[in-house]
Design a protein that fits this description.
Layout lengths: L4 H37 L2 H20 L5 H17 L2
Helix pairs in contact: 1-2, 2-3
């Protein structure tokens, strides 16, 4: 356990940030699952709507530094490709 006051504060701050990051990652995963479910069902309209919402959440996560920009781009690309296949 840390003895120095600043180290104790860093532990608290890191715990807070970890919780925030975990919540946002979970939210993104949920949106991705919704897109994949719509693709699996073959529902183009639902897939497009879910994809739009999903891209927004992925971009927000990348802007906050939770995902690297290339990781975010890769996720968006793969989802878009899957949705475009069901045309």
């Amino acid at each position: 356990m840390a003895n120095i006051k600043s180290a104790k504060k860093r532990i608290k701050v890191i715990a807070t940030k970890t919780e925030r990051n975990k919540a946002i990652k979970t939210k993104v995963k949920t949106y991705i699952k919704k897109v994949e479910a719509a693709v699996a069902a073959g529902d183009k309209a639902a897939a497009d709507a879910a994809l739009t919402a999903c891209i927004s959440e992925i971009d927000k996560a990348a802007a906050k530094g939770i995902f690297h920009k290339n990781t975010a781009a890769r996720k968006v690309s793969r989802l878009s490709k899957a949705v475009n296949k069901i045309a």
